[in-house]
Amino acid sequence: MYDISTQSETPICTNPAEQEKPGIHGNHIIWQDSRNGQWDIYMYDLVTGKEKQVCTAPGDQEETEIDGNYIVWQDKRNSYRNIYIYDISTETEKQITEMTDSRDPAIHGNYVVWETFNQGDVKWNIFIYDISTGKAEQIITTNNPKINPAIHGNYVVWDEVNNGNSAIFMYNISTGIPTHISDVSGYSHPAIHANNIVWKDEYNDVYMYDISTDTKITISKEPRISSFFMVSVFVIFCLAAILYLRKRSQE
């Protein structure tokens, strides 16, 4: 852990096994840990300085996320992946999906989102779970595959294959209205915080969209060689090779 105010680094877990996918909120740090020969979920309390096993059930527990009093993860204890939620204050866990192959959960406030593979139409769809009511539902029912969900406040964002092309979409939880944000090259893995959505394309260019002003800006752009330049270099190389071989044949 790195303390921004003191500019100091502190080890949280020194177990020789692999630790991945760390997350932090408030006084709690979470991660997935392979010390038991599979991926399990562990938590560290910054106040008490103590480590705790959150879930060590059979199978892998991965892709853990934390917000407030809750931790979520994808769980393969039943041979296929389901989404579980853990209440830190009551130290209780709950399975919130009953469908085959659900993965990549994200949580903010009162909502959990994830993607589930629908065997009926053979594609991934986005679902949302209301912690207060205990109800889950598919947030949109278009025929396009949807993956990589993220959530903050009243909005959910995801990658979607739309007419053969990748695009970023946003869903307003209050109104139930989806919005096309931007077409992208390759899957973008969008992230959202407050009114801002950020993503990258297959060239590692980074973009941001401001929901309040409906504007898109470029954050960073990777330098790359144009296809025209590459073709020109290839042509010059070929001509040079031909001239060289012709000269050798005349000697």
TrEMBL record:
Keywords: Membrane, Transmembrane, Transmembrane helix. The chain crosses the membrane at residues 225-245. The keyword Heme does not apply. This is Cell surface protein. It comes from the Archaea. It comes from Methanococcoides methylutens. PANTHER family: PROTEIN TOLB, PROTEIN TOLB HOMOLOG.
